[in-house]
Amino acid sequence: MSIPSPDPAWSVLELGPFSVHVYALCLLAGIVLATWITHRRLVARGAGPEVTLDIVMWAVPLGIVVARIYHVLTHLGDYSDGTGPWGYWEWVRIWDGGIAIYGALIGGALGVWIGCRRAGLRFWSFADALAPGMLAAQAVGRLGNYMNQELFGAPTTLPWGLEIDHPVAGFPDDTLFHPLFLYEMLWNLLGVAVLLLVERAVRRRAEARADAVGEPGYGLRWGRLFALYLVWYGLGRSWLEALRIDPTSNAWLGIPANIWTSLVAVALGVALLVVRGRQHPEPEVSVYLPGRSPSSADDAATPDGASDGTSADAATSDDAGSRPGDAG
User: Is 248 exposed, middle or buried (0-12, 13-18, 19+ CB in 10 A)?
Assistant: First the structure.
């Protein structure tokens, strides 16, 4: 028993003069899924219907560019010998695979920060809404690794070992490998369920505690759900990287760079969970920055400062724009 790899011909769809790589389609499907989940969660928390796409338009390009840069820098040996079809320009061939989720997080975070500043949205509110969608998108994206016959681990005799059609240096042709793409897909999908269940449990507990004073409970806000995402993904990625036979370049103490980055993600998540919890023990009742709201743009566009009776300036505190509901 084993998991067969797909025919390499399936990794590319020929549409007339165009070649569409399934890897890219998987990434796009993941982006669309994450955008949809984030949009539903943000709108349920009081955001305008257009704000998610406005922010995604900044986050996605920056995320892809930095993800590629991170991958190349941590796999320099794959691109520095000039032996690929494009020689020393091999690093340009992003359609053949090779982007790093940690690079995507760094670049995407920069894009989200820019987009949130322009939209008047709280950065951490967007991050909390994104967290489950991010894990779901990563799970979908790993299908692209399967189509490219990449992201596999050490040899195994387990019944779910992965067949690889192309030669793997140092191993016989009939060797089976740990299907790391599948392990990460399952880990990420489990993480989606864990984040949503924890968020719901915390919110219900907060609502029950606040019934006496009539205040809503808002679960893990102020960046705390995103902190749990960092801990969950960092823990999973650290042991997955330890199984890889094509690890990133070694760093301090001879440990692959991605393992160090995973441990940093876990530490950052724990620190963020503690610090943001202490900074904001109160409910987050608006996803907008003080003085901003869904109507701010319309008010700003009104000639001569005319108003329709609502003022964006009324939202001058963290409690502005309260919405009691949350789809979680």
Answer: buried
Tokens 């901003």, located at residue: 292
The pair of three-digit structure tokens given for residue 138, joined into one six-digit string: 């990563």
Q: Which residues of 288-300 are buried (b: 16+ CB within 10 A; e: fewer)?
A: bbbebbbbbeebe
Helices 180-210 and 123-147, packing angle to 10 deg: 160
Output the CA torsion sign for 260, 31, 269, 291: positive
Render pLDDT for 105-137 as a digit per residue (tens, 0 to 9): 899 999 999 999 998 899 999 999 999 999 999
Q: What are the phi and psi torsion angles at 38 (to 5°)?
A: -60, -40
Q: What is the Rg, in whole angstroms, of the alpha carbon atoms belonging to the chain? A: 22
Q: pTM above the 0.90 mark? A: no
Strand runs (DSSP E) across 52-180, as ranges? Answer: 162-163, 176-177
* CA dist., res. 128 & res. 227, Å (int): 8
Query: What is the C-alpha to C-alpha distance for residues 191 and 269, in angstroms, rounded to an integer?
Result: 15
CA distances from 27 to 31, 91, 146 (A): 6, 18, 12
Cα gap 42→86, rounded to integer Å? 43
